[in-house]
Specification:
18 helices, nine-stranded mixed sheet, six-stranded parallel sheet, alpha/beta
């Protein structure tokens, strides 16, 4: 008798390439595909934003959903496929048919009805995980990501249904709203408790998910430990310590079909660990594209980042006037804090032979920076997982990082005595401009020793950051959640 495959509803508020503001978009594109390849019966539930409506004009209606709570409008589910991966598009034009960022308005402020928008996503996710699902398909596990799906485990707790898993990609964003939304979203009055959905007299979607999900995960083992510490837990550390036995840290993977220097169509000169020489040609091409002098007489540092305090780019600004003395060049691609944007633009005007800056985001340029830079800078103060350091390692661009979150789990300092000979990058010893400057000096010194540098590059490029191992770990977590849920019923 055939064994029924594990079935999972993967709930996300963004998914590359259509809607992406950060790492979640990449994870939502790659992890479900890997799980499906591993035999999981998986479907992805995502709001039907304009980009998805345009991408799947022939999506068919598979369920009509009545208003599920006083503050939630009626909606419908549309079915589509992306390279064989089943998608469920939550179609509600009143809430999701808007241009731009899925969370912010044109002024960069939170959409005023985000509680309703992602309350609907959570409510529908839970409904699909309950007996009598409008699809005629009920998953064994509802897997939600970040606060936007965080109420689904609460609904499943209060009403019954499938096991649930919540993954925290960044605990700093918690989805907090007023008490008035409790009844409006269909939660019972007795949910307003310290051990329910109430959090400092607000309704917190993320806290609800962490309180009630059968199992919890985050995107690296180190970050799973860090968020139990008050310094990193953003107020939720006590709850996470209480639920520590249910919490797992599973390091993200990357899509190695997209991030592969041997096949990357964005690169003017493909290369590989076996044939790395063309990386130097990509450096020259990047220098020319960004208006820097074309030279191999000094290392070229790359940055692709949100320009924020969290990412530690203020530390780089504080020391960047010293780049000519190293000497070194710098290419920056990013946007964020307006003062920081202006600071980097002014720096490029002041040091045109050493610094080039492009404000905004350009996917092609991002790939070319990963390939053309000698070293990649990520001085983040905290980093749940980080993907760019893994892209950099795959492209033979040793990263410079602080030992936090997923950066600590992926980057081995090249001067670390143990494990010997496995160094693939550089760790910054401290959170100060001086500490970053010391690291840049060390990079430049070691870069001049080209045989040693080539060895570090080889260590980096030969690591496996595919989704195969993380997918196996998630399957184990799902089975554990199903088992626990069965015991509780």
């Amino acid at each position: 008798m055939a064994v029924k495959p594990l079935s999972v509803l993967f709930v996300t508020s963004e998914m590359a390439p259509w809607v992406k503001t950060g790492g979640l978009g990449d994870v939502a594109a790659a992890l479900p595909a890997s799980l499906r390849q591993a035999g999981v019966d998986i479907r992805v539930l995502i709001p039907c934003y304009p980009a998805l409506r345009a991408a799947f004009p022939d999506a068919r209606t598979v369920a009509e959903l009545p208003a599920l709570a006083p503050a939630l409008p009626a909606a419908r589910l549309l079915a589509a496929h992306s390279d064989g991966l089943p998608l469920l598009l939550l179609d509600c034009p009143e809430l999701f048919d808007r241009p731009g960022n899925p969370y912010l308005d044109s002024k960069g402020q939170d959409q005023p009805d985000n509680a309703r928008r992602f309350g609907l996503l959570s409510r529908v996710a839970a409904r699909l995980g309950q007996p009598g699902s409008p699809l005629g398909w009920q998953p064994d596990v509802v897997h939600v990501n970040d606060w936007q799906g965080g109420l689904a485990p609460a609904f499943l707790h209060y009403e019954g249904g499938a096991a649930s898993v919540i993954t925290v990609h960044n605990i700093a964003f918690q989805g907090c709203f007023g008490h008035d939304m409790l009844a409006g979203l269909g939660l019972p009055g007795h949910a307003w408790r310290f051990d329910g959905v109430e959090y400092h007299n607000q309704l917190s979607f993320l806290k609800a998910g962490l309180q009630f999900a059968t199992r919890l995960s985050t995107v690296s083992p180190t970050y799973a430990r860090e968020i139990q510490d008050p310094r990193f837990g953003y107020g939720l550390a006590p709850l996470l310590r209480y639920r520590a036995d249910a919490l797992r840290g599973i390091l993200n993977g990357i899509d190695t079909s997209v991030w592969n220097p041997a096949t990357d169509t964005a690169l003017p000169h493909p290369y590989s660990a076996d044939e790395p020489a063309a990386k130097q040609l990509n450096k020259a091409a990047l220098q020319a594209q960004m208006g820097l002098p074309v030279t191999n007489g000094c290392p070229l540092f790359g940055v692709i980042s949100r320009l924020t305090h969290q990412k530690g780019l203020d530390l780089l600004l504080a020391i960047a006037d010293g780049l000519p003395a190293l000497p070194a060049q710098l290419v920056v691609l990013g946007s964020g804090d307006k003062g920081m944007e202006a600071g980097f633009q002014t720096l490029a005007q002041r040091l045109p032979a050493h610094v080039a800056v492009q404000i905004g985001f350009d996917e092609t340029l991002a790939h070319r920076i990963e390939a053309g830079a000698d070293s990649f800078l990520m001085p983040s103060r905290f980093e749940p997982c980080g993907l760019n350091q893994m892209y950099s390692l795959r492209y033979g661009t040793p990263p410079v990082v602080r030992a936090t979150g997923g950066l600590a789990d992926t980057v081995v300092d090249c001067d670390t005595p143990f494990p010997a000979d496995r160094g693939n990058g550089f760790r910054i010893d401290g959170d100060s401009p001086h500490a970053l400057w010391t690291s840049l000096e060390r990079v430049c010194r070691i870069w001049r020793d080209q045989p040693r540098w080539a060895h570090i590059q080889q260590n980096a490029m030969r690591q496996d950051f595919s989704w195969e191992q993380p997918a196996r770990e998630y399957i184990d977590l799902y089975r554990e959640a199903v088992s626990v849920c069965a015991e509780l019923q």
